[in-house]
Design brief:
Layout: H1 2-20, E1 47-53, E2 56-61, H2 65-77, E3 82-87, E4 93-99, E5 102-109, E6 114-120
Antiparallel strand pairs: 1-2, 2-6, 3-4, 4-5, 5-6
Length: 121
């Protein structure tokens, strides 16, 4: 009986430790500002925005690079952005998008799972 109790307590402690050791990127969250806040970027779940300035946006995502790239390009396409250059040949993925005279450069890289940098030109 005592062994069973010790085993149950041990399993419960292990479960608590595993829950607390989840995804915790080493960045400080900042509020999302214009123009990024109007672009419907996929940052609601499992993401932390850590830089949001008028010409540069940075976020980190729990998902893999391929999924994050797809989510961003689809979100921007739905806002009228056109896909330009798309390069995923190396360890970083690069995407150029345009809407009228506006241009965005997106970069997806390995950083606490997936890091994203968008620069507006």
């Amino acid at each position: 009986m005592r062994k069973l109790l010790i085993t149950k307590v041990g399993i419960a402690l292990l479960a608590l430790l595993m829950i607390n050791c989840g995804w915790k990127p080493e960045v400080t969250a900042v509020p999302m500002t214009a123009p990024w806040s109007a672009m419907n970027l996929p940052v609601k779940d499992n993401a932390i925005v850590w830089k949001s300035e008028s010409n540069e946006f940075r976020a980190v995502h729990k998902e893999d690079k391929k999924s994050v790239t797809k989510n961003y390009t689809e979100a921007l396409k739905s806002q009228g952005w056109q896909l330009g250059k798309f390069d995923q040949s190396g360890d970083r993925y690069y995407v150029d998008m345009s809407k009228g005279t506006e241009k965005l450069n997106l970069e997806f890289y390995d950083f606490n799972n997936t890091g994203v940098v968008i620069t507006k030109q």
